[in-house]
Design brief:
This protein is mainly α. 71% of the residues lie in helices and 2% in strands. Strands 1-2 form a two-stranded antiparallel ribbon. A two-stranded parallel ribbon has the order 3-4. The longest helix is centred in the N-terminal third of the chain and has 32 residues. 54% of the residues are buried. InterPro entries: ComplexI-like_HydComp (IPR052175), ND/Mrp_TM (IPR001750).
Length: 480
């Protein structure tokens, strides 16, 4: 079992470097790397009990592979596989596919770490791989966006590393359990690093610009999976330690409301999707014990939407409302939008019901408002005009695009069986009421409203300042 797990961890990195030696086989090798993760995650789902590995003593490395991690690993595998399908017929070089696979491997490593220092190493490797993919077009804009991401990420991880050292100083161990009884400043520093890395609440406002300005396949990877590498450790902290659970849930609710507020008023397609990613990360943290299923659903939806956004004739909703989309593309948009809104027969329905059932009483009203905001946001896609366009007017939808859609959207139908107990009359009526109310509000109010929200907190110099303010809040919450 140990040999199998270690082989699975090392396989994407080994294949990633092999791609440099065999560039003609880059696509096939990358696909083999992600399919291995699909197989391993299925095997992990079928395992009778969680797997715990300790490879070294107090300095780490400790690994934990449980059902919660299985959902995230499967999400990573499916999203990366879909991106490889999408890019199969493109002119992207072997370098792109090698970095995609190395990013995939580093996300896998971050998901299974159960000690602070191994997680730090995995997240740093992840940052470098993501930076190289963001800057892949080699334009001035992409290089600036990539450097901005890398700089903010490194500052966050510096805070995290100092916190990890303080935990070790207190307990002579880097294990996650060391947070119990750790100094308040250690908890605050570690959480600040992870909140920023994952794009949560105001310290994660680097995310909208980074995700919206990256190429569509990279946006799909970042939004579908990369940010969740910072989410899972926080969910684990909440499950391990009762005193940390309220902090995680608080940031979950705050993030869900902040992200969806911006998403409702945003008129740019990719920025709306990016802000909504912020909101959906909040749903995962609001009920961390069931966050794995929500992460799977969101990863499939958001990856498909970012890939579809790359085929739209414009990023502006105003422009899209004045021209017709090709109907097959519109149908793909609608399926993903229905799922994330919580429509029955798609896994978003079960994920939302399961999350709502595991909220604490003080969270319920706020999260229902966030769900209503989601319905309003994705009505923008559902009510776009559409028709079957002539061949000369159609977007270029190559077989790789449809293979990615079959995998991602088909996954939404298949994952629907994970929580089939959700299908009761009450559970069905409530989400449908929320969705229809959201559609009415969109058509009656928000479709006509033009409100440009300030972007001052997204500016580079203010992102660092916001991290300082977040640290003060976290320190106060850890002491409370």
């Amino acid at each position: 079992m140990t040999a199998l797990t270690l082989s699975w961890i090392g396989f994407p990195f080994a294949v990633g470097f092999l791609i440099y030696l065999l560039p003609r086989l880059s696509r096939s090798l990358a696909l083999a790397g992600t399919l291995a993760s699909v197989a391993y995650s299925i095997w992990l789902f079928l395992a009778s009990e969680p797997i715990t590995l300790r490879l070294l003593d107090n300095f780490g490395v400790s690994l934990l592979l449980d059902p919660l991690a299985s959902f995230f690993i499967l999400t990573n595998a499916l999203v990366t596989t879909a991106v490889i399908f999408y890019c199969w017929q493109s002119d992207r070089s072997a370098f792109f596919f090698a970095q995609t696979l190395i990013l995939h491997g580093s996300v896998n490593a971050a998901l299974i770490c159960s000690d602070l220092i191994s997680l730090y190493v995995a997240l740093e490797v992840l940052s470098i791989a993501a930076f190289l993919l963001i800057t892949y077009p080699r334009t001035d804009r992409s290089i600036w966006v990539g450097l901005r991401y890398l700089f903010i990420s490194n500052i966050a991880m510096l805070f995290y590393l100092v916190g990890a050292v303080l935990v070790y100083k207190a307990h002579h161990s880097f294990d996650f359990e060391g947070l119990r009884g750790a100094p308040y400043e250690a908890i605050a520093l570690i959480f600040l690093g992870l909140l920023t890395k994952a794009g949560v609440f105001v310290s994660g406002l680097w995310l909208p610009l980074t995700h919206s300005e990256s190429e569509s396949p990279v946006s799909a990877l970042m939004s579908g999976m990369v940010v969740k590498a910072g989410i899972l450790p926080m969910a684990r902290f909440a499950l391990f330690l009762e005193e940390i659970d309220p902090i995680v849930r608080f940031f979950g609710v705050g993030t869900a409301l902040l992200g969806v507020f911006y998403a409702v008023f945003e008129k740019d397609v990719k920025r709306m999707l990016a802000f909504h990613t912020v909101s959906q990360l909040g749903f995962i943290l609001a009920a961390p014990e069931v966050g794995g299923f929500y992460a799977l659903t969101h990863g499939l939806v958001k990856a498909s939407l970012f890939l579809q956004a790359g085929k739209l004739p414009s990023r502006s909703f105003k422009d899209l409302n004045q021209r017709s989309l090709h109907t097959p593309l519109w149908i793909a948009l609608v399926i993903a939008s229905f799922s994330i809104s919580g429509f029955p027969l798609l896994s978003g329905f079960g994920a939302k019901v399961l999350t709502m059932k595991n909220l604490l009483p003080w969270q319920v009203i706020a999260m229902n408002i966030a769900a209503l905001g989601t319905s309003i946001s994705f009505a923008k896609f559902i009510f776009l005009p559409h028709k079957n366009l002539n061949e000369s007017e159609r977007p270029s939808l190559q077989p790789g695009f449809w293979a990615a859609m079959v995998l991602l959207l088909g996954g939404l139908f298949a994952a629907n069986v994970v929580y089939y107990e959700a299908y009761t009359f009450t559970n069905i009526v409530k989400p449908l009421g929320t969705i229809f109310l959201g559609w009415i509000l969109y058509l009656a109010i928000f479709r006509q409203v033009v409100l440009k929200l300030p972007r001052v907190l997204e500016e580079f110099e203010h992102l660092v300042g916001v991290m300082g303010l977040s640290l003060v809040v976290l320190f106060w919450m850890a002491m409370a």
